[in-house]
Specification:
- With 166 residues, the chain is α+β, with helices and mostly antiparallel strands.
- The chain is built from 4 helices and 8 strands; from the N terminus they run αββββββββααα.
- Strand 4 and strand 5 form a beta hairpin.
- It is globular and about 45 Å long.
Length: 166
C-alpha cells in the first residue's frame, strides 16, 4: 500500500506538468501581416477567413520546410503562409521558417479529403470538392512572402554587439 501511495505521489505531478509543457500538438502564434486563411496549403484554395496583423492563432503544424502552416483562430481552421507567422522562441517573436525546426512545431501533411471533410462540410465551396481534389497544390510553388534565406534570421551570440556601458 505504501509503495502504491509513493507511486501516485510521483506520478501526479508528472501528469499535471505534461499536458502544458510536453504536448507538441499545438503552439501559440501571431500573424505578422493581414492574412487570408485558406482551405488548403496554396494561395489558390478558397479563403475561409481573414486575420489582421498581430492576431493570435494556434499553430497545429506546418508542411515540410514550414512553407504552409495549419492554424486555427476563433473556431476557424485553415492554412496560412509560414512566412507570415511568428511564435515566441527564447523570449522573442521569430518567424516560423527560421526557428520552427528548433522548437516543437510539428511537421504535418495535408490529406485533402480528410481535412475538408473534418473542417469545411458546412462551407459553400464544399460542393466543389471533386474539382479541388484534382488541384495539384504541391505544384503551386512557394507561398506568399516566402524567401529561401531564413537562416539569415538566426543571430550568432558571438556576433551580437557588446552592451553599452554608458
Amino acid at each position: 500500500m505504501r509503495n502504491r501511495l509513493v507511486a501516485h505521489a510521483i506520478a501526479l505531478p508528472l501528469l499535471i506538468a505534461l499536458p502544458g509543457e510536453g504536448y507538441a500538438g499545438t503552439n501559440d502564434g501571431y500573424t505578422a501581416v493581414n492574412l487570408n486563411i485558406r482551405s488548403g496549403p496554396s494561395a489558390r484554395f478558397p479563403t475561409v477567413g481573414r486575420l489582421v496583423a498581430g492576431s493570435s492563432l494556434t499553430i497545429h503544424g506546418c508542411l515540410a520546410r514550414y512553407t504552409w502552416c495549419d492554424v486555427s483562430v476563433s473556431g476557424t481552421r485553415g492554412w496560412v503562409s509560414g512566412a507570415y507567422i511568428q511564435f515566441v522562441h527564447e523570449a522573442r517573436r521569430v518567424y516560423v521558417p527560421a526557428y520552427a525546426a528548433q522548437s516543437q512545431i510539428p511537421v504535418v501533411t495535408f490529406n485533402f479529403g480528410d481535412y475538408w471533410h473534418d473542417h469545411y462540410r458546412d462551407y459553400s465551396f464544399y460542393g466543389e470538392i471533386d474539382r479541388w481534389n484534382e488541384h495539384h497544390w504541391e505544384d503551386d510553388g512557394n507561398p506568399p512572402g516566402w524567401r529561401d534565406n531564413w537562416d539569415n534570421d538566426h543571430v550568432d551570440p558571438e556576433d551580437e554587439p557588446a552592451p553599452d556601458n554608458e
